[in-house]
Amino acid sequence: MFYQAIAFDLDGTLLTSQATILDSSKQAIKQAQALGLKVFIVTGRHHTAVRPYYHELGLDTPVVCCNGTYLYDFKQDKVLWGNPLTTAQANFLVKSAQELGIHVAIYTRDSMTYEQLNAHFTKFLKWVDSCEDSVRPSVKQVNFPELLDGNTLIWKVLISDPDLEKMQNFVEKLPLDQFSPEWSWVDRVDITAQGNSKGECLTELLKLENIDPKNVIAFGDNFNDISMLSTVGMGIAMGESEQEVQQHAKMTIGSNNEDSIAQTLNQLLGIVK
């Protein structure tokens, strides 16, 4: 099979449980690039939360961010394509979630914002503080009513709650002609404008790069990766992913904490070790 590109989800896939990239994965990526393959990151993260890994890998390609809500070019600090929420949509999501006591975060053009900390954001901020200044993600504590003034671009609203039944009920009541909810973790849902998905945005990126989706390898582990795994020629699910995710993949490999990605790329690309 002739492959032209590799697409990686980050959390639970290219990243270990300690939020690091294995040396074996980095080496395999370098070898793939030496063979002429493009390497893309396709993630639910904001682009500023991708930056540390982007620089660690030495990439120069656009990044699919916030589950396909926008395509970002680091070299130009430019959004190449995007489909943000309207202010009215964002206000509706924030008000509805907060009335139920569900934690809310809002991802704007340049920052990830919150009003109050929860367990996830407390842990996330520790990682942010550990990053070097030059690549540190932008996270801000704000007042949501002031943020939602009609002048701020909103990529997504992130909701989180340990009560999964409450979360499920909230998601099921969302008008799907307006919103695209994606479960990005067991207790977190990313809500974006209707029609956004990793698969759709990756398709737009591949058009820009003149790459046929059938010539792409993609690695993912969660429900928000299904559209990507289904779009490409070789969709690969991580071993700890849910059965539904694996059913949409051509192959299931081992854990993100093992050398599974490197071993798989070596096999698919014929890299001799």
UniProtKB/TrEMBL annotation:
It holds the Pfam family Hydrolase_3. Gene3D superfamilies: 3.30.1240.10, HAD superfamily/HAD-like. It comes from the Bacteria. The keyword Hydrolase applies. Keywords: Hydrolase. InterPro entries: Cof, HAD-like_sf, HAD-SF_hydro_IIB, HAD_sf. CDD domains: HAD_Pase. One of its GO terms (molecular function) is phosphatase activity. GO terms for cellular component: cytosol. PANTHER family: PHOSPHOSERINE PHOSPHATASE, PYRIDOXAL PHOSPHATE PHOSPHATASE YBHA. This is HAD family hydrolase. It comes from Frederiksenia canicola. The lineage of its organism: Bacteria, Pseudomonadati, Pseudomonadota, Gammaproteobacteria, Pasteurellales.
